[in-house]
Design goal:
heterodimer; A: 457 residues; alpha/beta; Rossmann fold; Alpha-Beta Plaits; 4 domains; six-stranded parallel beta sheet; B: 483 residues; mainly alpha; two-stranded antiparallel sheet; 22 helices; 2 strands
Chain lengths: 457, 483
């Protein structure tokens, strides 16, 4: 697939890295900053073009003729929209994805379409991150909560903690703990490396365990294995930017929310727009302020300011002062890795959250949902089994008969309205939605091939 | 430094290179010249050495970094010289010493085209074919070919291409994937070779000569299966075909590719470097042919035009074909031609020399300095195709000029210490470093008669020139080897 990425920022370069990692893709990145492009081209097997992303001449130089996908990720919504418009008008680029940050645009989906602004998918990283954090707060104890099949199936990552019921048990024993629910362990990470989950695998302390279950069962499963109290009541958010504000809006009716913002002007505007949130002006890394606002009682502390270093520091401080769970928005993958192993419970990486939405459009038509995990090393996906009356390597087979690449596990199957947990003898039928977990995303193309209709077994 | 990965790639490329011993063996069998054995033995030896290098580190999967890329390029060019010399050394004809065999191979791969063999006309066809093929493989670089054929190099391929591409600006990509870019370059190269061979054939060569000469024309190498070079044919049309395709070999292959892809010849006229290259050569041809005619070297202007056009293009692009020869031309002509070799063709072409673009940048920088003397506070960027060239590039080019001259001076002095006279020494090093072939004085026709030491120095100069000296100099700096 020929892909043009506009903008080599955090999300743009992560997208380029992930997409160029798949042999089938030809990636060209456009940006105005020569230095950034040179660095990127030294690292990745891509072509770079320097110039204004919205100019027809730049798009032409980037190979818009014959491009299959345009991903506009510059920092300006307007440039992104105009670039999509130009790519469509002049070059008839079939698929166009644009990053749209401003809620003013994003909130009006009728703006986007073939006869208005030709954007096939408008993604708002802020919105996606907000939803992501909201899910994490709703499922306390989870490191990651991902939805499949319109939210009917959940993939949840949890850390096995000392004293938790997970630790020291074999996976086989799971069933006896929760007799009436079906749950499957899709992957286990121990010390940063994946180990194959089998019936006799014993879960150790600090393991990161990924469960797949139906939505209605997941809460029960988590309650069973979590050491933490069931519900979150008090949330402290640092930073009233796009994400912080939206998050507060989403949570304020159910929970007690405090929002800390440094800039008085921003704080005042946030207070205007929020109804039940206590907006505080001050530094989120100020010990006095945090103590005064009873940080030791907070169930969750979420640092989502624009400065990742400030996020890290304030989250560390909040943890030390007694906040139960702390999360920080961290862009740099290396920082995120460092922090998640140490003082911070969850590092929120906007580009991982965003990349999934882009990957869904790159994969062949049979893949409907993609979530990037572990900073791009692993991937969870939902694929539809097509048979078309021809032979399929998947349809009509028992799971144990399917030749899956190493490190790949089928977690669940959605058939119509029914959610089926995968067992070795489950038979897959045509039109099933299959939820897979790939611990090594280098096998993504092999897996994709399995789900293409007409591939010989 | 990632020595495992470097060794693995060197092994793989040597194994790949060993396969190129098979076509000459085929030629030997086809023409029945009985000389197939040396090539098969060389095939086995080179393949075995490659395998021995590769086997212990075959699972070294780490990606090559740019630094490793430089190491691979430098070492591989040296390996090529030695490996390429094996069949010449093994065979009874020509009867070459180690020095001569290595010199001949290095001169071939670097597309220099200086030879130590006299009496080519009597050699077996397979040996003659092998020499032409070496030049062809060296022209577009066997390393680019390796990247084109071995996608498993991945990111490492990028480092290799970057380290092996001549010219000051290396960030332009033809296609998003480096493998495709490498394939595109080779496709253009093969296409031009086919066209050139067809041209020679129409002009009256037989198939063997047409293909062989096409190999050394497009690669701007200059080997010929005849002692008299293209003068053997004495044909106007062959001279014309040679001139056109030598000129084409001196143009950036990326530019050729763009023209073919967009099917738009005007792209040539829009390329600053191409225009400079074109007008420079045109002006020198016009001047020299008039000068040589007036000086009485040639009886008519048109005859003078034919021979000067051929020799100017041949020497400027570093091909080194001769018909009448130019060392005996009157006045400043021989020295002028030798000086032209320092310019060479365009960046991204198969020529040696310092490349037109560098001279263009340095010249414009000089003009800008002059303007600055008049208007000390003026903002005067050095522009190329309407865009300001980053200061870093200009400084880089200036540094390149300085190092080039230093290396040139040191090697020339070494040659003189070995007893060569001044004209021979400087023209031999100019010819070797700029990958031309013939020089002046004792090396006007062949390098056979200079001392062995001088041959080794020339061979080093050829490799240094082919990899644009920095790659070789880099290996001599302690910083390169520090972790």
């Amino acid at each position: 697939m020929k892909i043009i990425i506009l903008g080599a920022g955090q999300v743009g370069s992560t997208a380029a890295q992930q997409l160029a990692g798949e042999q089938a893709n030809d990636v060209t990145v456009v940006d105005t900053r020569d230095e950034v492009l040179r660095d990127l081209q030294d690292r990745l097997d891509i072509r770079t073009v320097s110039g204004n992303a919205a100019h027809p001449s730049t798009l032409l130089a980037a190979g818009s003729k014959g491009a299959d996908l345009l991903v506009a990720l510059t920092s300006s919504d307007e440039v992104n929209m105009i670039a999509c418009q130009i790519a469509w008008t002049l070059f008839r680029t079939p698929t166009k994805i644009a990053r749209i940050r401003s809620g003013d645009y994003y909130g009006r989906p009728e703006l986007f379409g073939e006869h208005s602004i030709p954007v096939d998918l408008a993604i708002s990283p802020e919105q996606l991150v907000t939803e992501y954090v909201e899910r994490l707060i709703r499922y306390p104890g989870a490191l990651q909560v991902l939805e499949f099949a319109e939210g009917r199936v959940l993939l949840v990552g949890m850390r096995a903690l000392k004293g938790g019921k997970l630790v020291g048990h074999q996976l086989l024993a799971l069933r006896s703990h929760i007799p009436n629910t079906e749950v499957r362990v899709a992957a286990i990470y121990r010390g940063g490396r994946s180990i194959l989950p089998e019936g006799d695998t014993t879960i150790e302390e600090h393991d990161e365990v990924f469960f797949v279950a139906a939505r209605e069962d997941m809460r029960l499963v988590m309650k069973e294995f979590s050491t933490e109290e069931a519900s979150v009541r008090r949330v402290v958010i640092a930073g009233a930017g796009n994400i912080g504000l939206r998050l507060a809006q989403a949570l304020e009716d159910r929970l007690q929310v405090k929002l800390i913002e440094r800039n008085p002007e921003t704080a005042r505007r946030a207070a205007e727009r929020l109804r039940n949130t206590l907006v505080l002006t001050g530094n989120a890394a100020d010990e006095e302020l945090l103590l005064e606002e009873n940080i030791d009682d907070a169930d969750a502390f979420v640092a989502v300011t624009n400065a990742e270093e400030a996020n890290i520091l304030s989250a560390m401080l909040a943890k030390k002062l007694g906040a139960r769970r702390v999360m920080a928005l961290i862009n740099k993958p290396s920082y995120a890795e460092l922090m998640e192993r140490g003082p911070i419970d969850i590092a929120i990486s906007p580009q991982s959250v965003t990349i999934g939405a882009i990957l869904e459009h790159v994969r062949r038509g049979d893949v409907v949902r993609v979530h990037s995990l572990r900073r791009g090393a692993a991937e969870a996906m939902e694929a539809i089994v097509h048979a078309d009356g021809r032979r399929s390597p998947v349809a009509g087979k028992r799971i144990e008969q399917i030749n899956l690449p190493e490190g790949t596990a089928i977690g669940a199957i959605v058939r119509g309205s029914e959610v089926i947990m995968a067992h070795h003898d489950t038979v897959i039928e045509a039109e099933d939605h299959v939820i897979l977990f790939l611990t090594d995303r280098r096998h993504v193309e092999d897996v994709g091939r399995l789900f293409q209709a007409g591939t010989p077994a | 430094m990632n020595l495992g990965a470097v060794q693995r790639i060197l092994g793989l490329m040597l194994m790949m290179f060993s396969l190129t011993m098979l076509p000459p063996a085929g030629v030997a069998l086809g023409y029945g010249d009985g000389n197939w054995q040396p090539f098969l033995v060389a095939f086995v030896i080179v393949a075995a050495i490659g395998a021995l290098l590769w086997l212990p580190v075959r699972s070294a999967r780490a990606d090559l970094r740019l630094r490793d890329g430089f190491l691979v390029i430098a070492v591989f060019w040296i390996f090529l010289g030695l490996a390429g010399a094996t069949p010449l050394l093994i065979g009874d004809v020509p009867d070459l010493s180690l020095t001569d065999a290595v010199f001949e191979a290095v001169s071939g791969f670097t597309t220099t085209g200086a030879t130590v063999i006299v009496g080519l006309d009597g050699l077996p066809k397979s040996v003659l074919y092998y020499r032409q093929q070496i030049q062809w493989l060296g022209g577009m670089s066997i390393i680019i070919l390796a990247v084109a054929l071995m996608p498993m190099l991945g990111i490492g391929g990028m480092s290799l291409v970057k380290a092996d591409t001549p010219g000051p600006i290396k960030d332009q990509r033809l296609t998003p994937r480096i493998t495709q870019s490498a394939r595109a370059l080779w496709a253009v190269y093969v296409l031009l070779t086919v066209l050139c061979a067809g041209g020679y054939w129409l002009a009256g060569m037989d198939a063997f000569d047409a293909i062989g000469h096409a190999f050394s024309t497009i690669s701007t190498g200059g080997y010929s299966p005849y002692d008299a070079s293209l003068g053997h044919f004495g044909s106007v049309w062959i001279d014309v075909v040679a001139t056109v395709f030598m000129f084409a070999g001196g143009v950036s292959f990326a530019l050729h590719f763009s023209v073919m892809r967009r099917q738009d010849l005007r792209l040539y006229a829009r390329d600053t470097e191409f225009l400079a290259y074109f007008w420079l050569i045109a002006a020198i041809i016009a001047f020299s042919s008039a000068y040589l005619w007036l000086a009485g070297e040639f009886p008519a202007l048109i005859v003078s035009l034919r021979h000067t056009a051929f020799h100017v293009v041949s020497v400027h692009t570093g091909t080194g074909y001769t018909t009448t020869g130019f060392a005996h031309w009157p006045g400043a002509m021989p020295a002028l031609l030798m000086l032209l070799t320092f310019i060479g063709g365009c960046a991204g072409s198969t020529t040696g020399g310092m490349k037109v673009i560098r001279w263009l940048l340095v010249f414009r920088q000089g003009v800008a300095e002059l303007k600055r003397l008049v208007h000390p506070s003026a903002e005067i960027p050095v522009k190329l195709a309407g865009r300001a060239v980053p200061e870093r590039v200009i400084i880089g080019v200036a540094g390149f000029f300085a190092m080039y001259l230093v290396v040139f001076a040191v090697l020339m002095l070494l040659m003189m210490m070995l007893g060569l006279d001044q004209v021979t020494a400087w023209s031999a090093i100019a010819s070797a470093m700029n990958n031309v072939g013939p020089g002046l004085g004792e090396v006007a026709v062949t390098f056979r008669d200079i001392p062995d030491g001088a041959k080794w120095i020339s061979a080093i100069a050829m490799i240094a020139g082919r990899v644009e000296i920095f790659t070789i100099l880099l290996l001599l700096t302690p910083a390169f080897w520090q972790r």
